[in-house]
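S1.2 Input.
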Amino acid sequence: MMRKTFNTTAVCIPGEHYMVDISGRLQKIKEMIAAKKYFTINRARQYGKTTTLQALFGYLQSEYYTVLLDFQTFDASKFKDGNIFSIAFAGSFLHALKRNRLSENTALEKACADLKNAAVISNSIFSLKELFECLRDICAASDKPIVLMIDEVDSASNNQVFLDFLAQLRAQYIERAWQPAFQSVILAGVYDIKNLKQKLRADEEHKYNSPWNIA
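S1.3 Output.
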């Protein structure tokens, strides 16, 4: 049996590291998810954001499908424009969705196949609008509500495409009463997303990430 150690770098793994009990934290987050909240988790590094998200993946399994993405795995070229980003996001989303114990569901399988095909066949015109239309179809076909969690969102904050992505998430949140949507969206990073600034032009003008303006 491997001896547990104290870990002060990167994610903590329950079987390998000593950990504080975060069950209370997970329960509070689950209550926000049940209330269909779209929210952020922002703390300094080494405060357990990634550890919490990974623990949530297992904690939510009985009631939700949880898609956990990490924008740190998207290199800078993936944020060049909406087309490139949407294709990359579609591939990562489908891969992460398969980590769940998916029930046999023909409608969900078809919706996932449609997303994959759209990203490949319509490669040159596939962008955020088409991506979110396919994601709505997946949410509609799923036999469990889907929770989207994105870690290291700070990695994307210096890109216009990220603002556009936030705007699409906000639109989905606003329209969730009459269109299929994620049960909840959690964005995790070092900074509070409402305080991130975006460099838009070479003249050093900035603007706030105003699309994510829901407390």
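S1.4 Remarks. Residues 29-208 form a domain with the Rossmann fold fold (CATH 3.40.50).
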